[in-house]
Amino acid sequence: MSVISFNTIHLEQNMGHGNARRVSLEHSRNGLVALMDSDDISLRNRFAIQISHFIKNPKLSICGGQINEFIDSPSNIIDKRKVPTLHNDIKQYMKHRCPMNQVSVMFKKEDVQKAGGYRDWYCNEDYYLWIRMMLQNCMFENTDETLVNVRVGHDMASRRGPCTCRCLRRQRPTGHQPDCNLSC
Fold first, then answer.
1. pLDDT value at 149 more than 80
2. Cα gap 27→12, rounded to integer Å
């Protein structure tokens, strides 16, 4: 079994998710990069499952999976967020909602960089990147297996809003035109 080493990067100030992920990606030394939030729990076989998908399909750019949401303890699962598994289904779903559970994704660093990498886009940095990757003809896949247990608070439902193209367009910074031609 090989050892996974981590390179911790400390940012002087909070620059937002998009900028933090961009800086992290710049420092990554690997061709495959996995995302995760610090308070979530990846299942033991998560990386093995995802790496097997990349081995089976060398053209694959990004692989995510299903997530369980829990409050307080991983045994207190309150919901499961299911997303489509096949590329064409993901492409259709993407026109209306974010098709990837962000905390579960593993992607090829090179393909993310070709799509312009992470950009600061309040609350939608990942979704905006996935759209740009799809427009670059990147191959998407989600495994039907649960990969991550996600910690949510009691007030999560009230904070969670729809993740749509229209939402992305409304939230774009002044003067910034998205390179998104998906018709919603």
1. yes
2. 16
